[in-house]
Amino acid sequence: MSGRSRRRGVAGRMYIERGRPVLALVGWAGRGPRNVLILRWESGELVVRPFRGLRRPRPQLPCSVPGSRGAAEPS
Q1: Residue 61: per-residue pLDDT
Q2: What is the pTM of this model?
Q3: Is 25 a member of any domain?
Q4: Is residue 18 part of a domain?
Q5: What is the largest CA-CA distance in the chain?
Q6: Is 62 a domain residue?
Q7: How many distinct structural domains can be found in the chain?
Q8: Is 2 domain-assigned?
Q9: What CA–CA distance (Å, rounded) separates 52 from 10?
């Protein structure tokens, strides 16, 4: 199995660009810079930019209510 077949693309993933969410629609990989087509979530702009500088968002932890034990118990 080649390294290319195991690698997952960036398309469809959320990233953070300068603190704001963006959606990667298409990614290019080749001999030159690795570019991506992104949708800037807040403004709706479509932009082609280098992948460098985009960061994955931190995973959100589930909110817990003080005193709760998770799932509700059957009555």
Answers
A1: 73
A2: 0.61
A3: yes
A4: yes
A5: 62
A6: no
A7: 1
A8: no
A9: 12
